[in-house]
Structures
1.
Amino acid sequence: MQSTDSPIFKSVAVVMFFIVNLFALYLLFRGHNMPGGGFIAGVATSVAVILLSFGMGLEAAQKILRSDPIRIATWGFLIATLSGVLPMFFGLPYLTTFNYKAYELPVIGDFYIGTPLSFDIGVYMVVVGVITKVIFVIAESTSQEHRLVRIAESGYCARSEEPIEEDPLRKSEEVPIHPDK
Amino acid sequence: MIIILPVLIPLLTAICGLLVQKSSIGRRWFFGFSAWVQFGLAIYLVREAWVSGTQGLYLGGWEAPIGITLVLDMLSALMVGMATLMTLACTIYGFYEQKVEDKHPLRLPLIQLLLVGMNLSILTGDLFNLFVAFEVMLLASYALITLEADDWDVRQAFPYVAINIFGSAFFLIGCGFTYGLFGSLNFADIALQSEQMLADGEGSPYQVELLAMLMVFVFAIKAGAFPLYYWLPNSYPILPPALAGLFSGMLTKVGVYVLIRWLGTVMPHDLDFIYNVLVWVGIASMFFAVLGAVSRNFIRGILSFHIPSQIGFMLLAIGFFTPYAFAAGIFFLLHNIMAKGSLFLCGGVVTFLCGSDDLKKTGNLWVASPLLGVVFFVQAMSLAGLPPFSGFWGKYMIIREGIALGEYVLVGFALAASVLTLFSMLKIWLASFWTENPDVKPRVDDKRWRKMTYAVGGIAIVSLFMGLGAQLFVELSMMASEHVLDRVGYAESILTGREFR
Amino acid sequence: MILLTAILVGVLFAQSTYLILQRSFVRILFGIILLANAANLAVLAMSGDPSGKGVPIADGRTELSADPLPQALILTAIVIGFGVAAYFIALLYRTFLDWKTTDAGELFAKSTTDDSNSES
C-alpha cells in the first residue's frame, strides 16, 4: 500500500494512532462492568494500526506490531484459554472467575483484577492480530501482483494427482503438484 | 470437570501448534501423542457415561438454564470417541502421506480446531453454544478445504462455503425463534417448557412444529440430506485424502447427531409430520445419491456420493422414531463414521500407489498389496451391508424395525439402494484391485504406503470388532437411544434445582 | 417497533435472496453479508419486547437493564459473520486472481477456452 502524499494526513495519523490506542486501553480496562471489553478494544487498536498504515505505509504499521500478527493472535488465544484453565487447578469448573476488586486506584478508580481481565486481554490480542493480518494480506496482494497466488504456489499444493474430472483445459504438466516425486 | 477436556486438550494442542509453526519430527510426535491422549480420554468418557448416565458440567459455576452447560450421555460419549478415533487415524495417516517438509504448517492445528468444534457441538447442552461450536467447526473446515487446494480446485470451495453460511444464518434465526418462544436456550429447559406449553394449551403446537422444521432444515443442510447435498460430492474430492477421511467421516455425521439430539431430546415427541418428511427425505437421498455414485468413475467421486446415501439410512431410522429405530440409527451412525472415513483413506492409498484414482488408470493392486485389498474389501462390504460386517447389523436393525412398522415400500427402497451401493463398491474393487491393467505399475518402492495402510487397518480392526462383536455395540446404542429419548431424565440431571413429575 | 423491525427483516431477506441468486460471486458475497445482518435483526426482533425482561442473573435492579441475552447472541453472531466474510473475500480475491472472473457461470463452465487461467 502506498503511503499518502498529504503531510496533514500523515501527521494526524501519527497523533491519532496514540489517541485511539489510549481509548482502546480505556475500553479494555473498563470492560468488566461497563460497556467495553476485549473485542471492542481490539477493533479500536486495529483501526488505529490501519490508519497508521494509510498514513505511513504498510511497512511502518508492520514494524510497529513487531511480529507477525498471527503470533500476537496465538499468544492472545493462549492467554484467554489459560485464564479459563486456571480455576480447574483448584477443582472449580472451567471459566470460573477469580476476581479481585482494587478500590480507589489513582487515575483509574475502582478496578477489577482477575481472570476476566486476562481473558479480555487475550481476546484483545486475538482481535488485533486477526484483523490486522486480514488487512495486511489483502493490502499486500493488491500492491504486489499476485502475491496471494505466489504464497499458495510457493507453499504447499494438494497431493491430488489427477484432476477431479478430465478437463481439456487443465494442463497437467505445468501444475507442480508432486513436491516429492 | 472431565467433560470439558475433550474440548480443551485439542484447543491447547492447536495453540501450541500455532506457536511452533516449523514442521519437524518433534511437532508430529506432539500432535500424535495428543491425539492418542484424546482417544484414551474418550474411551474413559464412554465408561463414565456407562456407569453414571447423563451428567452435566456448568462452566464458570453458573447453574443450568443460565450458564453454558456441557452434557455427557452415552450418545455424546460415543460420538466423541468416534471423532477422536477418526482424528487419530487421519493424523497418523497424514504423517506418512507427506514428508515432514512438504506439510503445510497450519494443517495439524486446524485439524485440532476442527476437533474442538466437533467435540463442543457434540457435548454442548444449549442451542447457542451449539451455533458457536458449529461455526468453529465450519471455519476450520473452510480453512482446511482451501488450505492445500491448487487454483483449479479452489473454486469448488464456493458451493461448500456458500451453502454453509446460508445454513448458519437460518440456524441463527432458529436460535432467536427458540428464545422468543421459550425464553431459554438450554436444551433441558426447552424440553420441559415445550412440554409444559403444549400441556397448558398456551402457544400453538404449530409454532413448535415450525421451529422444529426450521432446525431440521438447518441440520439437514449440515448433514447433506437429499435436496441439499449438491455441494458435497464436488467439494469433498478436492481435499487431500487424510482430510477427506476426517471430513467425510465426521462432519456430516455431526449434523445427524444434532438432528437426533434435537428431535429426540429437545422437541416434543409428537411431530408426526416431520417424521414423515424425514423418512421420505431419507429415502430420496439414499436413492438419488447412490445413483450419482454409480455414474462416477473415480474413487473419491464414488465415495463422496455415498455420503448422502448413507445419511439417508440414518434419516430413515430417525424418521421411524421408535427407541429401537433410534438405537439402529445410532449403531449405523457409528459404523458409518468408521467405514466412510477408512474408505476415503484407502482411496488415498490407491491414489498414492497408482498415481491416480481414475478407475481406468488403476489396477493390479491385489498383487501389489493384499493387505490393502483386505482392508478395502472389509470396509466396502461393511458399507454395502453384507454379513458379518458392522454395516449389516445396522441395516438389519433399521430394516427389521421398518418391517415391524409395516413400511414395506420404504424397506424395498432401502434394500434397492443397498444393492446399488454394493454395485458401486464392487466397481471400485474390480477396477482397482482385481483387474490386471498392463499400463499401471504401482509405486510399491516408496514404503510410506505400508504405514498409511496400517493407519487405515487400525480403523478396519475396530470396525471389524464392531461387526463381529456387535452385541456390545448394540447394547451401547440401545443405552444411547434410551438416554436421548428420556427427556425428563435428561432435564432432571441437568436442571438440578427443580421439582419434577 | 417490533413490527417495523420485522418488516425491515423481511426487506433485508428479500434483498439478500435476490443478491444470492445472481451469477456474480461478488453479489453473492454481498447477499450473504446482508443475510447475516437480517438474521441478527431477526434474533433481536424475535426475542420480544425488551422491557420487563430483566437480567437473568443479578438480583434486584433488573429494571435498569434490558435482556442481555439476545444482545450477547447478536454480538457473537456479528463476530462470526465478520470472520466468515473476511474468509469469503480472501477466497473470492484469490479465485479472481486465478481465473480472472467471479462469474459463477464462467467459473464452473467446462467449455471455456480461456487459456490464461492456470498461468500467473
2.
Amino acid sequence: MADRSASYADAVAAVARAEGNLDLVADELFRVARALEGSDELRMTLSDRQIPAARRQQIVEDLLGGHASDTTTAMVSMIVAAGRSSDLAGIAQEAVEINARDRGRSVAEVRSAVALTEDQAERLAAALSAATGHRVDIKVIVDPSVMGGVVATIGDEVIDGSVRHRLSQLRDNF
Amino acid sequence: MSKRLWAAAAVVVAAVALSASAASAVGETVGSCIFDEVTVVEELVTVDFDEIKTLKATIESEDASDASKEEREAAKREREAAKEAKEEIVNKYETGLEGCVEAPNPIIPEPTEIIWGGAAFVVLLALMKWKLFPVVKNLMEQRTQRIQDAIDDADRQRAEAAEVKADYEAELADAKAEAARIVDEAREQAATVRADLQARAEADIAEMRERAAADVEASKRQAIADLQSEVSDIALGAAEAVIGRSLEDPEMQRQLVDDYIARVGADQG
C-alpha cells in the first residue's frame, strides 16, 4: 500500500519536476487530499467503480478546473481514473515529503481548530525548525476536533498542544 | 448275542441227547444177559446133541460089527473127549449165568459206559469250548467291562465331583477374600472421599470467603471508581462547557496558537 502510494507520488513528482512546479503541485495535491477527507460523499463517488472512469475524471476536472494547476488536475484525474482515489491522501503526503526533501526541508503536519494567520504559520515554522534542528515546511489542516491549540507531526514525532489533549490528560488524572 | 445264545442252547440239547443214547447203549439188564447165555448154550447143546446122536449111532454100529480092539479103543477116546467138551460147555454155561446174576460194581462203571460217557464228555466239551465258552466268555467280559466302566465312570464322576467341590471351595474362598477386599477398599474409599469432601468443603468455604471479600473490595473499588468517574465526568463536562464557550472566542483561539508557538520555541531554547 505504502509502496504503491510512494510509486504514484514518485510519478507525480517526476511529472511536476518536468513541468517545473513541484512545489505548487505538492501543495495543491495536499489540499485536494484534505478536501477529499472532509467530504465522504465526494470520496465515495470518486471511489465507486460502478461509475465510469471518464465520468469520475470529469467530476475531478469540474471541481478543480480554475482552482488548481493543470498539472495537479491531470495528476488527480489520472489517480482517480486508476481507481486509487482512496490512496490520494498517502500519495499527497509522499509528494509533499518528496518536495521537501528536494528543497532540503522536512514537512510538519499541523492540525489546528482554526486557520493560522500567515504570521502564525511563519512563526510556527520557525519554532519547529528550531526545535527539530532543520528547516521545516508546515502543512496546516483545520481540524475542529482539536478544539483549540495546535498538534504538529514531524515524521514520527508529535508535539501536541491541543485543548483536546489537555482535557484527555485531565480525564486520565481523574 | 441272541444267535450265540441259541447256538449255546443247541449245543446243550445235543449234548443231552448224546448222553442219553450213550447211557441206553451201555444199560444191559440181568434178563437179557441170561437170555444171551441161554442162547449160546442152546447152540452149543444143539451141536453137542447132534454129536452125541452121531456118536451113539457110531457105538451101536461098532457093537454090532466086529470091530477090532484098536477101533473100539479109539471110539472110546472120542466118547471121552465128547464128554469133556460137554462138561466144559456146562461149566461155561454156569459161569455165564453166575456172571449174569452177579451184582454190578456201584462205583466203577462199565467200560462201555466210560467210553460213551467220555466220548460224550469230549464232544460236549468240544462243543462248549467251540460255541458256549466264547459266548459265555464274551458275556462275562462284557459284563466285567460294563462293571469296570461303571466303576471307572463312578470314579471319574467322584473325581469330577471332588474337583468341582474343590473349585467351588476355592471360588468361595476367593469370593470371600474378594468381598473382604472390596469391603476394605470401600471403607478406605469412603474415608478418603469423606476426607476429600471435608477438605474440599473447607477449601470451598475459604475460597468463598476470600471471593466474597474480594467481591466486596472490588465492589467498593468499582463504586469508588464509578463515583470518581461520575465526578470527573461532571467536572470535565463543566470544564469542557466553560472551555467550549471560551474557545468560541477567536481571540482565545489565537492566544492558544500563540502560546503553542511560544512553548515550542521555548522548549528548544
